[in-house]
Backbone:
């Protein structure tokens, strides 16, 4: 794992955008998988700068990491709408190439169909991930199997409470369940890019990156992946014990990304 700690969330967004841009620069038909939530929003905004400078996203295929069950895709807080707003329109992706799990159909068929669509695309080159304050990955809540596939999950009270800010603060309007790529599905992406900012993520990040592998912290599953980059602001990294080592080990890499991101390969 390459764990990068930067002073501010804005800097994690810049570096994260450079890494995503490098993937698309190498392959204009890249398959990317997109998290939603507040963590990747600044990264997507920074990616817009690359698009404005001429990076072409029109042939990129996208997969959403998850989607609420029971929200119409036209609902402003459906992840279908969020990704249209934050990714598809600003980066000029072809809307027909953005796939989102079906939150209105039969989950028993929608989940396997989504995994088949990912496989049929050739597989995800880069999976962009946030981390829940309770350690969830996508909507894989604590207790999710590391082998899980795309499926329906019941959201925890903590997650619904964390996300009610997107629903006007009204807990009753936050859906109780969601479709999410499974942890096994996520781990099949060729590279993972994890972004977390803020003190409220510090405990989950400490457990995920330096704690034991455990379904109690679904994000700890990223330790099993051979190519993971984790971008943290100082507050989110506060619970890590090896911060000095990560800084020393990654200083030269970070300098290269800052200097010339487009030629950089994501490496573990
Ligand atoms: C959300 C999403 C996840 C996201 C996580 C963290 O509910 N389903 O994909 O990574 O929870 O959210 P945020 O970045 O807003 O803290």
Residues:
């Amino acid at each position: 794992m390459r764990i990068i700690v930067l002073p501010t969330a804005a800097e994690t967004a810049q570096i994260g955008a450079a890494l995503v841009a490098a993937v698309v620069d190498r392959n204009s038909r890249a398959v990317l998988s997109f998290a939603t939530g507040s963590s990747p929003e600044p990264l997507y905004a920074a990616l817009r700068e690359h698009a404005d400078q001429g990076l072409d996203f029109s042939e990129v295929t996208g997969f959403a990491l998850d989607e609420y069950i029971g929200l119409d895709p036209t609902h402003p807080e459906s992840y279908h709408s969020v990704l249209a707003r934050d990714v598809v329109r600003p980066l000029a992706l072809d809307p027909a190439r953005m796939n989102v799990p079906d939150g209105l159909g039969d989950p028993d068929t929608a989940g396997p169909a989504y995994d088949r669509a990912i496989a049929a695309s050739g597989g995800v080159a880069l999976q962009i991930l946030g981390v829940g304050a309770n350690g969830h990955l996508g909507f894989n809540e604590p207790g999710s199997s590391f082998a899980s596939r795309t499926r329906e999950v019941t959201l925890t009270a903590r997650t619904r409470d964390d996300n009610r800010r997107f629903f006007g603060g009204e807990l009753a309007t936050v859906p109780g369940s969601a479709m999410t790529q499974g942890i096994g599905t996520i781990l099949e992406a060729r590279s993972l890019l994890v972004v977390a900012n803020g003190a409220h993520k510090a405990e989950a990040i400490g457990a995920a990156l330096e704690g034991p592998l455990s379904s109690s912290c679904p994000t700890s599953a990223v330790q099993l992946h051979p190519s993971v980059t984790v971008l943290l602001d100082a507050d989110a990294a506060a619970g890590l014990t090896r911060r000095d080592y990560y800084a020393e080990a990654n200083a030269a890499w970070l300098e290269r990304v800052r200097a010339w991101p487009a030629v950089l390969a994501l490496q573990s």
Notes: The longest strand covers residues 191-196. Residues 35-39, 65-66, 130-132, 138-139, 163 surround GLP (CB under 6 Å). Residues 109 and 206 are 36 Å apart (CA to CA). The mean pLDDT is 95.
